[in-house]
Write a structure and sequence with these properties.
Growth Hormone, Chain: A, 434 residues, 0% strand, single chain
């Protein structure tokens, strides 16, 4: 092969890798945008339009419960789609998850409210929310592996951090959308304004599907398929031979998931209803924090290629634990500046390294033939236990302890302690081949 042919082949390979990296980030961002729209509107709209025949606090709790229920369905989505991903391939699975998530989100934007169809309104809303949970349950593992399995060990941390941008990018898009729409008169916002982001997400879904349809299968999966190293029933093999790794992954997830949903979702209701902040002030603080996170995540991914995933994750977890009490104290000062500073530190500085290295670190624990299943089930179990329940638990603690934030801070500390215990069992593998 001539030097010219080698150069052309290298250029084609680079283009394919870059497209796979783009597909992992864009698809993940769209899905999280859809997912966070619901979380943000749970405390602004759904408690008023779909859970209306109850006490306001109970209505908010029910709204958060509908948000949290999807986290309990996410492990099922992880099981279903990871089975497809480990048997058939990553690419086809990611097209399925994006289609399911996008369809459910679009239909939420069309739902009649409680006053129109009665009890069917919350039932249909919860059903579509569960469909979102199924989609996101299978999406995360596939998007991470699309990036990680197209990388070399020298840049695996950086590649693995790119799909993790989906969370802050999706949250930023959702927050900015809602912030713009809340400038509408309240009657218009509650009547039709809140529906626009759900309906317009269909355009983003079509763009994501177009990008994903032309990507190749990952080299690692191709190699496993050619060698015949494909698990007959990936879930069975995962729990038979790798159950400890699944539990370790779930435990390590706690520090990343629970605190984030408190800082980014629960805070919207807490700061506006209990501390007197305006909705715009809170949404702007969350948006700024997520913008900082978008810059930090690839930087932390790159850093993990030098010093390893485990040190960064341990450092972020300890910082999260230490900042739990100062965070709520800064909010209690009832200053827009301190609210913004606290949110930027919590999400943009402390949470960013956790999010950046999590996907890569979890991928390095499992072998190729059950990797999709292993990271999906472990990640979604952790999210179910300490993620989707976090806003609901935080609100319940707030009401049980006379509006005191101390129990919520202790709840964050508990999540971090469990993660630190789990991290002890994880070996650093930055210099190892997948």
């Amino acid at each position: 092969m001539s030097l010219t042919q080698i150069a052309v082949k290298a250029n084609v390979t680079k283009k394919k890798t870059n497209r796979a990296l783009l597909a992992s980030m864009v698809g993940s961002s769209i899905e999280w945008f859809d997912f966070f729209l619901y979380g943000s509107l749970a405390s602004l709209v759904f408690n008023k339009l779909f859970f209306t025949n109850t006490d306001p606090v109970v209505g908010l709790l029910l709204s958060y419960l509908s948000f949290g229920l999807s986290f309990f369905i996410r492990p099922l989505g992880g099981i279903i789609f990871s089975h497809i991903g480990d048997k058939i391939g990553r690419k086809k699975t990611l097209i399925l998850t994006l289609s399911l998530m996008g369809g459910a989100t679009f239909l939420i934007g069309l739902l009649p409210d409680y006053n129109t169809i009665g009890v069917w309104a919350p039932i249909l809303l919860i059903t579509l929310r569960l469909c979102q949970g199924l989609g996101i349950g299978g999406e995360w593992g596939g998007s991470v592996l699309l990036a990680v399995e197209n990388s070399s060990k020298e840049n695996r941390g950086f590649f693995g951090s790119i799909p993790q941008l989906g969370v802050p990018v999706g949250m930023l898009l959702g927050t900015v959308s809602i912030s713009l729409l809340t400038s509408l008169p309240e009657a218009q916002f509650l009547s039709w304004g809140w529906r626009l982001p759900f309906l317009l997400s269909a355009v983003l879904i079509l763009i994501g599907l177009w990008i994903r349809k032309d990507i190749d299968e990952t080299p690692a999966f191709k190699e496993a398929k050619e060698s015949g190293d494909i698990a007959k029933v990936p879930l069975v093999d995962t729990f038979r031979y790798h159950w400890k790794s699944v539990l370790i992954t779930a435990g390590a997830k706690f520090a990343e998931t629970g605190p984030y949903y408190i800082f980014a979702t629960f805070i919207i209701a807490y700061a506006t209803k209990y501390l007197g902040y305006s909705i715009g002030t809170v949404l702007n603080a969350v948006a700024i924090a997520n913008f900082v996170t978008i810059i930090m995540i690839p930087c932390m991914g790159k850093l993990s290629d030098k010093i390893g995933r485990k040190p960064l994750y341990i450092g972020g977890t300890i910082a999260m634990m230490l900042f739990a009490f100062p965070y709520f104290y800064m909010l209690s000062l009832q200053s827009a500046l301190w609210l913004t500073v606290a949110t930027v530190i919590a999400i943009g500085i402390i949470w960013a390294p956790l999010e950046a290295v999590m996907g890569t670190m979890f991928s390095e624990i499992f072998s190729t033939n059950i990797r999709y299943t292993g990271i999906s089930v472990g990640n979604q179990l952790g999210a179910a236990v300490f993620g989707g329940t976090a806003p609901m638990v935080a609100l319940a603690l707030l009401n049980a302890f006379n509006n005191s934030w101390v129990p919520i801070a202790l709840y964050i500390v508990l999540a971090c302690v469990i993660s630190l215990i789990s991290l002890v069992a994880i070996r650093e593998r930055k210099n190892s081949e997948l």
